Amino acid sequence: MLSYNCQRSRFSKLWLYGITLLSTVLTTQIATAETVMEKVARTGVLTAGTSKDALPFAYADDEGQLVGYSVDMLTLIQQQLEKELGRKIELKLVALEPQERIPQLVNNDVDIVCDASSFTWKRDKKIDFSVSYGITGTRLLVKQKDYLTISRSLVGKRIGVLPGTTNELAIKRAEPRAKIVTIRDRAAGHSALEQGEIDAFADDGILLESWLQTINNSEDFTIAGYYSQEGIACMIPEDNSQFLNHVNYTLIRFMQSFLLGQPESLLIFERWFGFQGIVPLTEDLLDLMFENMQLIVDFKEEIPSKVLSY
After folding, report:
1. Exposed end of the chain (fewer CB within 10 Å): N or C?
2. Phi and psi (nearest 5°) for 195?
């Protein structure tokens, strides 16, 4: 027969185990139920996913810092949250591969993703999108000598794509008989094309233009075709309407102030897309970007001019 002390010791261990288990369950439930706004207010940290190789939207610079047009949008969102919450907010940037973005949002590992993402109905079933703050589309990077062949037909051509991107979907829609080759990342895609492992690499046109400006043998390559036109937007976890409102307000405030010629907003845009920017846009692309901004701004209530300055 167990002694009294032995029974009490066993009971104490079981009691402690039960309390620990209950605490873990409750903590998990609280974390799951917590909205992004509540989490940011509690922790003082906004965890944002972005890209490491989507120049000029989001990329790692020579010092390894994540920078770009979309990262600037994240900084504006951080500043807006500081005003709303009345406290300092740290912006924690996390570099994600394209196929990691949706799972990280669904699992609440990141609070928002802003890189070069665009809308699809499939994605919209799992996460929510902000308003569009940029525009791009799927094009093909090809060797100069293959331009005419690729332009005529993609049948049987080996097209490199990043998995889980709208570029992959656009090529499949444009020519189902093309041979899709999934590529690890953009650097691997460029390398595969140079080495003849693929016939073309599909990506956003602006990103391809930016890559050509960074290499020494740009005359060996060119950009072909127009396979889609897509707005660029941030993505956030579902059921976070209050946070989404703040994100949309921030993006529309930026676009409205830019269209009105506010110096701070002009500086942000010019830094990435202006004549002396990282990737100067063609006249046609600039017009398209302005038209997209104007459409988004016109669709929403005008923000009073007194609060447009940063």
Report:
1. N
2. -90, 0
- Residue that is last in its domain, among 224, 258, 277: 224
Residues 117 and 238 in one domain: yes
Distances (CA, A) of 158 to 143, 151, 176, 232: 13, 14, 12, 27
- For range 207-216, the mean pLDDT: 90
**CA 133/CA 219 separation, integer angstroms:** 31
Q: Measure the CA–CA gap between 285 and 290, rounded to whole angstroms.
A: 9
Task: Tell me the DSSP string of 83-113.
Answer: HHHTS--EEEEEE--GGGHHHHHHTTS-SEE
Q: Using an 8 Å Cβ cutoff, are 174 and 154 in contact?
A: yes
Which among 176, 194, 224 is the end of a domain? Answer: 224
Distance between CA atoms of residues 166 and 202, nearest Å: 10
Whether the pTM exceeds 0.85: the reply is no
Return the pLDDT at 166.
Answer: 94
Parent domain of 120: 37-136+230-307
DSSP class of 300: S
Domains in the chain: how many in total?
Answer: 2
pLDDT at position 2: 46
49, 113 Cβ separation under 8 angstroms: yes
Which pLDDT score, from 0 to 100, does residue 25 have?
Answer: 45
173 and 289, same domain (yes or no): no
